[in-house]
Description:
Structural class: alpha/beta
Amino acid sequence: MLIKYSDYLTHKKWMSRALHLAQVAGDADEIPVGAVIIDSSGNLIAEGENKKERYKDPTAHAEILAIREASQKLQTWRLNQCTLYVTLEPCPMCAGAIVQARVGLLVYGVDDPKTGAIRTVSNIPDSAVSNHRLHVVGGILESNCRHQLQVWFANRRRVSN
């Protein structure tokens, strides 16, 4: 799918913010994933970073936390006029939540070859179980997102050895 240059610049801006949040998560010893949600006017309405370890909650993924915040702010669970930016392709849990929230557009940075449930390992949005057709743009700041994750995991392995 081709995107307009102006859309690419917008996607790059918000993915940069998600990368910053991912760095905050990584600095807190969480897997570095960050997410932001903007409304149809281009305003930031929610953000999240992985907090599984800090919250002792397996559902505290960046996407879930951002969706919860956006729903509370907008006072609706229907986020069909919103765009979700996330640094890593969502897992099955997050993909399901994104579909349930009726997110209008998902923009992600890098594919997840282990648990990616948007395009890589499985395709929840386009499967028969999905009651919402999700528009997806992948690969925005892909090398930055990949590098951040690779460095974090390499440092973690080095420390544990």
